[in-house]
Amino acid sequence: MDVFMDIIMNLWSTMAFDNLYWGNVVMWGIAFLLIYLAIKKDYEPLLLLPIAFGILLVNLPSDIMKEGSGLLWILYHYGEEWAIIPPLIFLGIGAMTDFGPVIANPKTLLLGAAAQGGVYITFFGALALGFTAAEAATIGIIGGADGPTTIFLSAKLAPHLMGVCAVAAYSYMAMVPIIQPPVMKALTTEKERKIRMKSLRKVSKLEKIFFPIITAIVVILIVPDAAALIGMFCFGNLMRESGVVERLSNAAQNELMNIITIFLGVSVGATMPAEVFLTPQVIYIFVLGCVAFATATACGVLLAKFMNLFLKEGEKINPLIGAAGVSAVPMAARVAHKVGSEADRKNYLLMHAMGPNVAGVIGTAVAAGMFLSVLK
Amino acid sequence: MSLEMTVFVSGITGVFLVMIFLQIMVNLSSKLAIRLEKRESPDDK
After folding, report:
1. Identity of the residue in A103, A120, A209 whose CB atom sits nearest the CB atom of B8
2. Distance (Å) from the C-alpha of residue B5 to the closest C-alpha of chain A?
3. Residue A92's pLDDT band (boundaries 50, 70, 90)?
């Protein structure tokens, strides 16, 4: 009997049950919720699903996140801590992005900048709640609605907040159609929402080739800390527009993007063990993330209204497209179009909104670079 | 100036500075591209 008990005890000691605590079970619940949202509600499934599974794996007692040897630790360390994966994602995004609407109407670049106002308003909100300046910057950048930039900045400034901020950013990006319309409607009149914009001119191939080269030079000279993100972004776009390296462009858009998305998602999820995630700070971060999205939307809309004061009749901007400056490509542009078409069914704002939308990606990377230049 | 204000002022200034410069450069490069394409097009014919 004693031998039998010894065998049972030995077997038990090799299992993980002893290392479980209630926090892990709560985290399983969160992982299941995210899996549900990704599969059933289609909320950013490409990232929420791997992140959710990463959360589940790290909250099952094992050595998968053990420093130096755990599989997910290795992916996290070399992918995110070394900040390699976010710039590679930017390479893919660059290869997928058509900058035609920005080139046709460069004024919309300013709307991409204005939406970053939400980042700085949230920065002060986070400071008021007791976060350090580096943590507040990481939380503020959620308002840029750009997952890779959020991960990039948190890896450099506040690695302990990476998982929470990434989940907040991706969750709110999926909720853009819910968060933005009330803010957009509150800040605009029916007449403003009905403003029709001139059709965008056709942009030539040479203009599209010039754009990534010029963007890389201008941005990196002014904000060298944004070089990794903007450099890869512009290189990806040059591959696309040059038309001579279609294989590379396709690889950046598809195979490379898919592979790194898997590594990014699962290893970001793995940064959320119960002891890190189940703190009051997390609630603050989610509230601030929502504030960041709403204020970024408001700043974009308000700048568009301000610009209209100086623009001639016929050249005025529909202020709704300012809301697309928060990035979240192309969801925010679709929301601007939808809210506009509710006021005037024949008003097609989608292509106009794509301008500030892609400008917002550049704006968020620049804002992250500015945070780094002061705080790193 | 406190660190927080430095972050805010430099951040907002930096973002707008980049976008204003970019806007100017995009306008100039578009003009250059259109001119180059116009110059090339008669040769193509």
Report:
1. A120
2. 9
3. very high
